[in-house]
Amino acid sequence: MIRLQNVSKQYSNGKAVDDISFFIKEGETLVLLGTSGCGKTTTLRMINRLTEPTQGDITINGQNIKTQSPELLRRGIGYVLQHHGLFPHYTVAENISIVPNLLKWTKEKTTSRVNELLEKLELPLKVANLYPAQLSGGQQQRVGLARALAANAPVLLMDEPLGALDPVTRASIRKEFNTLDELKRKTILMVTHDVQEAFELGDRICLMNEGKIVQIGTATELLFKPSNDFVSTFFKEQRFQLELESIQLKDIWQLLPKTIEGTDEKVLSPETTLWEAIDTISQATGLGAERFVTTVNNQNKQVETGSLMAAYTAYKNSFTA
Amino acid sequence: MNEQQQSLWSFIQQQSDKLLQQTAAHIGLTFISLLLSIIIGIPLGIWISRKKQWSGTVLGIAGVLQTIPSIALLGFMIPLLGIGVKPAIVALMLYAFLPIIRNTFTGINQVNAAVTDAAKGMGMTSNQILFKVELPLAMPVILAGIRTATVINVGVATLAAYIAAGGLGEFIFGGIALNNTNMILAGAIPAALLAIFFDFLLARVQQLNIRNARISLIIFPIILIVLSSFYLLPATIKGKMLAGFTPEFMGRSDGYLGLKDKYKLNIRTVVISDAIMYKAAFENQLDVISGYSTDGRLKAYDLVVLNDDKTIFPPYYAAPIVRQDALIKYPELEPALNLLSGRIKDSVMTDLNYRVDHLKESPEKVAKEFLMRQNLYKKPRNGNKGIVRLGSKIFGEQYILLQMYSMLINGNTDLQVETKTGLGGTKICFDALNNNQIDMYPEYTGTGLLVILQPKNNIVQEIIGNKEKVYEYVQKEFINQYKIKWLKPIGFNNAYALMMRKKQADELHIRTISDLKMFIDNN
Question: The ABC transmembrane type-1 domain covers which part of the protein (chain B) (predicted)?
Fold first, then answer.
């Protein structure tokens, strides 16, 4: 859907982006991850032409973005900013209606869309007539997202969408993002410096450094098949948690011990991450003896902390071997 | 003199028509210039917020404009735009520029970058960003600039009275010239109240919340235009003839008040400074002006003095006044000085003044040529009998007279002359004479009476209409009080006078002030 080919951006003080190429499939979420100044925001801003590349081509749906006027291009791309960028002199409803109004939607259509989004983002209807300054930080960020989604743009650019929030609010909004059906259908490019966020929200992660792509791939690829030392050092601090979070039960199913038949087991979905599984089991064992199983191809395997950890180690070793 | 004793309140009541008219003109002047300044300043501020490389230049120029003293700025405007409303509006507009341009620039720059970035990122055009985002968000800062500009304009607009643009300055400067506190306050208090009131009003507009602010964006320009139109109100009182009088003349009983009182003259007037009045008459911007009857500009601009047939203007006959002890010590001095008596008529003095003031010839040359024509010039005798000290006030006519007296003394006596020119005004000159710093200077009978002697009102009224009586009175009193002698008058009368363009006066057959009144009443 979005393709960058040998894109560079040269500033007077050096190259902010240096010969970058990648492709984002329709419906995929790609996260640009990296430290400040690595060129990730510049890369994102070149896609809606807030920054013009010095070299290279960018296409959306096979069409070069230069063939369209920047304004028309941008109206077809949702844009979420770190500091939400809501208009302080517009009400929430007016803020959400900006792009529909630019596209000359009817009043009725816009109003019903605004109400629909408020509902989906779990914002009370009464906030529609409030000004951004009257909302909490989390609410402001949700309104910022609603505004980007309003005109049903198929592509969404998110620049540190949760960067300005406190960790608790971040975590809860991240969960909401993950469950929001509107986001699932969209092709998303997101910029973040938060590793946790990248792993949670990204289908694939593109790790950048000094204007270049260091590695692009899924979370497990980055963790278990790092292309160089930079990649492995980058995740060092949170490696254990990240690994447990990125591995799902179905990934290690083969490595779990043989099935033991039994009754009254609790069933965990094969998409459950190790982190979640261990969390669930440890909480349950506190209450009493419970058995957990997971089912792949109609075949049950028992899930317990000890066997999970053994499987995890074996899984990890399979990459280094 | 009576005016000074009455209370401020009764002055205001008495002059309420004029006060209202001046206030309306003042408001109109303030806001029409403000409106123009906004119309030009805000786009300019927007432009430099887009082209930052120009911001230094534009703000620099606006800043320099503001540092020019207001009266000088008004003065610069006259050669370009003449007198009256136009130069005043332009000058005030230039004054209002700095706060408006700077605040527009700052206001737009301080809009949160994330907001403009979002606006751009959502696909708003740069015009949409300007009108829907930047200007509304910059509005409080821009309004603060407009507020500053308003207060500045209310203040500076008082100076507009100097160039016949009206406003409360007419009272203020008239009051200063006449030393009439009530008149000053009658102009100054409303001006101050206007400043406070508009400042308060704009402060309220600034504090409006966002919703109401949008409404105010529509209402504010309307109010501004309505206030600007105040200026048109006084202009609706039309007349065929327009008179320009100095602030001092406007308030004097031997000036405009006397014209109304004794002649029942009912002419449309504007207040204007002496410095530009003659030229304005010449350029057809004024029809009648108040001037001095021997002023050289009378000739330079081809003006004619209207005969004061009801004698409201006191006589100002020039004559040398000399310390009596000097006359006794040097008996030959008096006959030498009296050689000039009766020799210079009004028109002759006007011509001499014209040559000095306008043609920039030296007083010495003009004096010498005149004496030669009159066969009064004699070669200096270079005697050394003693020294006579001659003084003069600080204007051309006095310099010329001084040179003549100096030549007459040198040519007819063995005395030596020491001149002290440029002794400021009447007070300095007279004090120098009275304190034996100088021995003589040329003085005017009216000045001797009204400025130096200041007798009781009934005495003034009794003698003021008669030039002989005034001369006799000052001669007697100066000897008695100061031992200073008035010698014989030189002949000319440098008094207040009404003047018109010669051509116009001839066409309309106006010779006297009564003729002028008849003409105005019949049209």
Answer: 23-202
Residue among B115, B123, B210 minimizing CB distance to A71: B123
User: pLDDT digits over A297-313, tens only?
Assistant: 777 788 888 888 888 88
C-alpha to C-alpha distance for B313 and B335, rounded to whole angstroms? 31
Put residue A56 in one of left, alpha, beta given phi > 0 → left and psi -120 to 50 → alpha.
Answer: left
- What is the phi-psi region of residue B179: left when phi exceeds 0, alpha when psi lies from -120 to 50, beta otherwise? left
**Residue numbers in B near A83 (CB within 8 A):** 112, 114
What pLDDT digit, counting tens, does each position of A263-289 carry?
667 788 888 888 888 888 887 765 556
Residue B213 has pLDDT above 80, yes or no: no
d(CA B31, CA B228): 5
Q: What is the pLDDT of chain B when averaged over all its residues?
A: 87
CB B290, CB B249: distance < 8 Å: yes
Alpha-carbon separation of residue B63 from A172, B70, B98, B145, B446 (angstroms):
54, 13, 6, 14, 47
**CATH class of the domain whose range is B2-235:** mainly alpha
Asked whether B390 and B402 are in contact (CB, 8 A), the reply is: yes
Burial of A101 (0-12, 13-18, 19+ CB in 10 A): middle
Which regions of B214-280 does DSSP assign to beta strands (E)?
Answer: 242-245, 268-271
A166: tokens are 């406190």
Chain A residues inside the 8 Å CB shell of B136? 89
The residue with greater pLDDT, B98 or A168, is B98
Give chain B's contact residues with A (Cβ, < 8 Å): 112, 114-115, 117-125, 128, 132-133, 136-137, 210, 213
List CB contacts (< 8 A) between A99 and chain B. Answer: 122-123
Fold classification of B242-307+497-522 is D-Maltodextrin-Binding Protein; domain 2 (3.40.190)
Please report the residues numbered 103 through 132 in chain A whose beta carbons come closer than 8 angstroms to any beta carbon of chain B. 131
Contact between B115 and A71 using a beta-carbon 8 Å cutoff: no
- How far off is chain B from A92, nearest CA to CA, in Å? 13
Q: Which chain A residues have a beta carbon less than 8 Å from that of B132?
A: 87
Place of tokens 């006449």: B178
CATH code at A2-244: 3.40.50.300
Range B205-228 average pLDDT: 72
Sheet of strand B318-323, all strands in order from the earlier edge strand to the far edge? B415-420, B386-391, B440-444, B318-323, B484-486
Nearest CA in chain A to B113: A85
Q: In chain B, whose CA is at the least distance from the CA of A100? A: B122
State the span(s) of chain B assigned CATH 1.10.3720.10: 2-235
Mean local confidence (pLDDT), B436-456: 90
Which residues in chain B are closer than 8 Å to A131, comparing Cβ atoms? 210
At the fourth CATH level, which superfamily is domain B318-494?
A: Dipeptide-binding Protein; Domain 3 (3.10.105.10)
Mean pLDDT in chain A? 87
The amino acid sitting at A219 is A
Residues of chain B with CATH 3.10.105.10: 318-494
Residue A214 to residue A253: CA distance in whole angstroms: 31
- Per-residue pLDDT tens over the stretch A249-270: 888 888 887 766 666 677 888 8
Band of residue B400 on the pLDDT scale cut at 50, 70, 90 = very high
What residues of chain B lie within 8 A of the CB of A93, using their CB? Answer: none
Q: Is the pLDDT of residue A60 over 90?
A: yes
- Interface contacts (A, B; CB < 8 Å): 63
Q: Can you give the residue ranges of every domain in chain A?
A: 2-244, 247-320
Yes or no, beta carbons of B133 and A147 under 8 Å apart: no
ipTM computed for the complex: 0.84
Look at residue B231 and tell me whether its pLDDT is greater than 80.
no
Give A139-168 pLDDT, tens digit per residue.
998 899 999 999 999 999 999 888 777 888
> What chain A residue is nearest to B138 in terms of C-alpha separation?
A89
